[in-house]
Specification:
The structure holds 2 protein chains of 2 kinds. By secondary structure, chain A is of the alpha+beta class. Chain A has 2 helices and 6 strands. Helices cover 14% and strands 33% of the residues of chain A. Chain B has 28 helices and 10 strands. The chains are: A alpha+beta, B alpha/beta.
Chain lengths: 92, 612
């Protein structure tokens, strides 16, 4: 269901590379892993906007907002999800 | 739907308000049990629908039917094989897009269905407007709105059930269908207020004192405030038993008298004293859970607990275990994952509970010089904590194999818990405890009474003696009775087994008693040493112990009492929460074996080191 995205022109990052307060758009969720399935089952999909709200004191879990929905992902869980910056200027 | 409907199932994501809706639908006509062999709860109830009484099953909440959690597997099995006549698919109206991804899988079941949009109050407050008629036409099922915790929309739900139909196959179009039915999308996020609160509650620094304060509050409420009604219950039981003792002479039916006084009343008393703790603790936990705070606690704790193979929320049942293992085990249902619940349950008795404090108060001053006593006590608690944190990883590598559960925790918005919901939860917990644990505990109490009072002639009431002589004599009688009882005999016959740990039959007999409740160890020891006032000042007993046993025995005994033989209430509760005797017995024998091995090691090593 992903949006027609030209990946080449955008910097693709993993969700763990976001800084608190930064937003991005999800472009790949690994559908064959438990984390990917879990995310789909919770209504998270490619094309959605994601914001990293904050990171817990020991570096995990990460507190995201997928569209509106706040969700905690452990660092290794978030690492597998790819996104690109909504606005390429944010990459800097 | 035809008039032949007999069974209706409720299904939905966790936190969609399904339980509230189920309660609203069935009122107090419900039964709570467990699915066999798993920690998953089974709820069913009845509701009047038109002319008939219909059974309603609250399926375990799960994100869809296709994941591999026991909840999803159970829901799937019930829906496929449970002869369900109609399905209520409950979704959170504020998260329609997220919840309806499961609609087509639900539709594939080809069951008559009603789509229930719960949390309609919040959806409305957010400014979302839906064309329900349009949604009904496109999905082919009745669509209704409810507010579960206020019991609004229940009549509409019942009416809708009478016209439930199998949904149309919508395939992947659900997003488009929803977009067409959405007259106005939400204008304000339902999470807006929560975001402001979270800036403080989930703050890197402020988050911790808030968490600690809440934890402290819970345990203060459950164990300090709980102490008060506990005292009343104990006094009431004591009065009851004194009244019976006064009116029932030892001469008439002495066996039965003893059964009732020392077996039944003592056993029931042992069950009842926990009730205030359980009620207050579950009130506090329900507040944490229903307000939405618990998910925030996970955020703070997950990384720490993960290192030990437990999820962040596992912290709460474990700390509860310092008060008492029984509510601690009941609190494991705060955890989402079956394996996490079982692991946490397993290690819970290692947290040194309140009932073990009298034991430490007896043993530590008896065997440690004053300046080492605090360290010893600290060491005991630390050993328990260390084992409770190390065992889960070990068990995950061996018995409960499989990848660790994912976190993927959806954070619900903060909500104000309702009184009705709190009282429902609390009374349900208390009742379950009384009914399920109570029966087992009572039965075991009677067995324990039997083995520690038989076979032995009951003492005749001694002729008038001075009260001191009389009390001394009674203590001797009690000692002889225990020594000659089955428990005493058992203690003697398994004495060789415990020789490598440094125990004699007296200790072993007292250990058998400690299975009834840990603190019984102290009273049994004072009986075998025929000493007065076990509760008040046990200096004489301490001196006798010091005279008879060396430090190696004391150390090994502490290790054994900390780790081995969880008490019968723990056993009963694990059985109830794990849904099978298997896990309960595994816990019992596993911890006992571990405790035994460590006790023997402690005894042998400390004998070498201390040259005993
Ligand atoms: N505002 C609002 N809150 C609700 C509604 N239904 C349930 N709740 C609250 O949502 C929380 C979760 O409800 P619960 O029934 O335990 O959800 P379950 O996990 O699906 O069983 C509780 O705090 C309820 O009080 C509703 O229709 N509106």
């Amino acid at each position: 269901m992903g949006l027609p995205i030209n990946i080449q022109s955008k910097t693709v990052i993993s969700l763990t590379e976001l800084k608190p307060g930064q937003a991005a758009r999800i472009c790949h969720i690994p559908s064959d892993t438990p984390v990917g399935v879990g995310l789909y089952d919770r209504g998270v999909a490619e094309g959605q906007r994601v914001v990293l709200e904050r990171i817990a004191p020991f570096g995990s879990p990460l507190w995201f907002r997928f569209d509106e929905l706040p969700m905690l992902l452990r660092r290794d869980e978030a690492a597998a999800v790819r996104a690109h910056y909504d606005d390429e200027r944010e990459a800097k | 739907m035809s008039s032949a409907v007999l069974r209706i199932a409720l299904f939905g994501n966790p936190n969609c308000g399904k339980t509230s809706l189920f309660n609203a639908l069935t009122g107090h006509r419900q039964r709570v049990g467990n699915y066999a062999g798993v920690t998953v709860e089974r709820r069913s109830g009845t509701v009047r629908l038109g002319q008939r009484t219909v059974e309603v099953i609250d399926l375990p909440g799960s994100y869809g039917l296709t994941n591999q959690s026991p909840e999803a597997l159970i829901a799937q099995r019930e829906l496929r094989e449970g002869e369900i006549d109609a399905l209520v698919f409950v979704v959170d109206a504020t998260l329609l897009r997220q919840s309806l991804v499961h609609f087509s899988a639900m539709a594939d079941l080809a069951l008559p269905m009603v789509l229930c949009l719960n949390m309609a109050d919040q959806a409305q407050a957010s400014g979302q407007e839906l064309d329900l008629g349009q949604l009904e036409r496109e999905l082919g099922v009745p669509v209704i709105e409810t507010v579960g915790h206020r019991r609004l929309g229940v009549e509409q739900l019942k009416n809708a059930l009478l016209r439930a139909t199998a949904p149309r196959s919508v395939g992947q179009d659900i997003a488009a269908i929803l977009a067409r039915a959405l007259r106005t999308p939400a204008q304000r996020s339902v999470f807006a207020a929560s975001q402001r609160i979270d800036r403080i509650v989930a703050h890197r620094i402020y988050g911790w004192p808030i968490f600690l304060l809440l934890m402290y509050g819970i345990f203060w409420l459950a164990f300090a405030v709980g102490e008060i009604p506990m005292g009343w219950i104990e006094a009431g039981i004591a009065r009851l038993s004194a009244t019976i003792a006064a009116h029932w002479s030892v001469a008439t039916l002495p066996q039965l008298r003893s059964l009732i006084l020392d077996g039944v009343i003592a056993g029931v008393g042992g069950v009842l004293v926990f009730v205030p703790n359980i009620v207050l603790l579950f009130l506090a936990l329900a507040l944490l859970e229903d307000s939405g705070y618990l998910a925030r606690a996970s955020y703070l704790l997950d990384a720490v607990m993960q290192r030990f193979g437990l999820p962040g929320k596992g912290f709460i049942p474990l700390v509860t275990g310092f008060g008492c293992s029984v509510p601690g085990i009941m609190a494991t249902r705060l955890l989402e994952d079956e394996r996490d619940r079982k692991l946490t349950m397993f290690v819970l008795p290692l947290m040194s509970c309140g009932a073990r404090l009298p034991i430490w108060m007896l043993l530590v001053p008896a065997f440690f010089p004053r300046q080492w006593q605090a360290t010893a006590l600290f060491g005991i608690y630390s050993l328990g904590i260390a084992l409770a944190l190390l065992l889960p990883r070990l068990l995950r590598r061996t018995l409960l194999k499989g990848p660790p559960s994912e976190l993927l925790m959806v954070l619900p918005p903060y909500r104000r818990p309702t009184l009705r919901q709190l009282s429902h939860k609390v009374s349900e917990r208390a009742w379950l405890y009384l009914k399920k644990a109570g029966t087992v505990i009572l039965a075991i109490s009677i067995v324990m009474w039997f083995i520690s009072s038989f076979p032995a002639q009951l003492p005749q009431r001694p002729a008038q003696e001075s009260s001191i002589a009389q009390s001394g004599r009674q203590h001797q009688l009690a000692r002889d009775r225990l020594a000659n009882s089955f428990a005493g005999k058992l203690g003697r016959s398994i004495e060789p087994l415990f020789a490598p740990a440094g125990y004699d039959w007296r200790i072993v007999t007292a250990l058998i008693g400690a299975f009834a409740a840990k603190e019984v160890f102290v009273s049994q020891m004072s009986i075998v040493y025929a000493i007065d006032g076990a509760d008040e000042d046990n200096r004489p007993l301490r001196e006798k112990l010091r005279a008879r046993y060396g430090l190696p025995t004391a150390l090994s005994l502490i290790v054994f009492l900390l780790i081995a033989t969880p008490c019968m209430a723990t056993l009963a509760m694990t059985r109830r929460e794990a849904g099978s005797w298997r896990w309960a017995l595994f816990q019992f024998f596993g911890l006992t074996a571990l405790g035994y091995v460590l006790a023997v090691l402690t005894f042998q090593l400390s004998r070498i080191v201390l040259g005993g």
